[in-house]
């Protein structure tokens, strides 16, 4: 598989709402990405970086490629995954979407 499905390190929920600790260590940069429905991002790969994503809201189609292998997956709110180095990734935003990267 070209992608690693992740789970938050910790999730707490009560009548006030939810808190999800996505990661405690292992990543050096955090980004919030907003994308409009029917838009495209990506089309590249990282030589060294393992890049993790958590979908806050919306839905995406992710196309991954490495060598002769291609995978297409869909993700929506609450999903978390990591893309390994040298894996080309294309994000097709099905709906308006907010991601943490």
Order of helices and strands: EEEEEEEEEEE
Tally of contiguous helical segments: 0
SSE class: mainly beta
**Biggest sheet: strand arrangement:** 1-9-6-11-4
Biggest sheet: strands, sense, closure? 5 strands, antiparallel
Beta-strand residue fraction: over 45%
What separation lies between the terminal Cα atoms? Answer: 20 Å
| Uncertain stretches | none
Number of beta strands? 11
Work out the helicity level: under 10%
Whole-number mean pLDDT: 91
Task: Assign an overall shape.
Answer: globular
Radius of gyration: 14 Å
Would you kindly provide a written description of the structure presented here, covering whatever features stand out?
The relative contact order is 0.35. With 101 residues, the chain is an all-beta fold. 0% of the residues lie in helices and 59% in strands. The model has no long low-confidence stretch (mean pLDDT 91). The strands form three sheets. A five-stranded antiparallel beta sheet has the order 1-9-6-11-4, with no helix packed on it. It has a four-stranded antiparallel beta sheet with strand order 5-10-7-8, with no helix packed on it. It has a two-stranded antiparallel ribbon with strand order 2-3.
């Amino acid at each position: 598989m070209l992608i690693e499905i992740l789970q938050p390190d910790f999730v707490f929920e009560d009548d006030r709402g939810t808190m999800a600790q996505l990661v405690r260590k292992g990543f050096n940069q955090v980004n919030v990405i907003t994308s409009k429905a029917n838009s495209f991002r990506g089309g590249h790969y990282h030589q060294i970086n393992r890049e993790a994503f958590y979908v806050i809201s919306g839905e995406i189609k992710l196309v991954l490629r490495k060598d002769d292998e291609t995978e297409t997956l869909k993700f929506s709110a609450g999903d978390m995954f990591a893309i390994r180095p040298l894996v080309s990734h294309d994000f097709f935003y099905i709906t308006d979407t907010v991601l943490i990267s």
